[in-house]
TrEMBL record:
Transmembrane segments: none annotated. Pfam families: STAS (PF01740). Residues 16-111 form the STAS domain. Gene3D superfamilies: STAS domain. SUPFAM superfamilies: SpoIIaa-like. It comes from the Bacteria. One of its GO terms (molecular function) is anti-sigma factor antagonist activity. Belongs to the anti-sigma-factor antagonist family. It comes from Streptomyces gancidicus BKS 13-15. PROSITE patterns: STAS. This is Anti-sigma factor antagonist.
Length: 111
């Protein structure tokens, strides 16, 4: 099991959270806290980079939904980038691929 790390920085569009390691029931609160600590306002985007995510269980997916709800309540937008294929499949199976804005990379595309 890989420990979860979340690195916070800024992009021109808004805050960026780079998530690495395993996101599960033991640490999903870390993602919620990191999102709650991001400075969000109407018109900004919270970008969550999942390119180094190793594993995500249902608690991790629930945390992503909570992050989305927090972002929407702030009037901001949410983009998930570099989503691993296994997580993309889960999001697709649950219909959450229609809820989240999934992108390949935050470095290659304009928002």
């Amino acid at each position: 099991m890989k420990p979860l790390t979340i690195v916070s920085s800024r992009t021109p569009a808004g805050p960026l959270l780079e998530v690495a390691g395993d996101l599960d029931h033991s640490n999903a609160q870390q993602l919620r806290r990191a999102a709650a600590g991001a400075v969000l306002s109407a018109g900004l985007l919270l970008v969550v980079d999942l390119g180094e995510l190793g594993f995500c269980d249902s608690s991790g997916i629930t945390a992503l939904i909570a992050v989305r709800n927090h972002v929407v309540a702030a009037g901001a937008g949410l983009i998930l980038v570099a989503v691993p294929e296994t997580l993309r499949r889960l999001l697709s199976l649950t219909g959450l691929d229609q809820v989240f804005d999934l992108r390949d990379s935050h470095r290659l595309q304009a928002y």
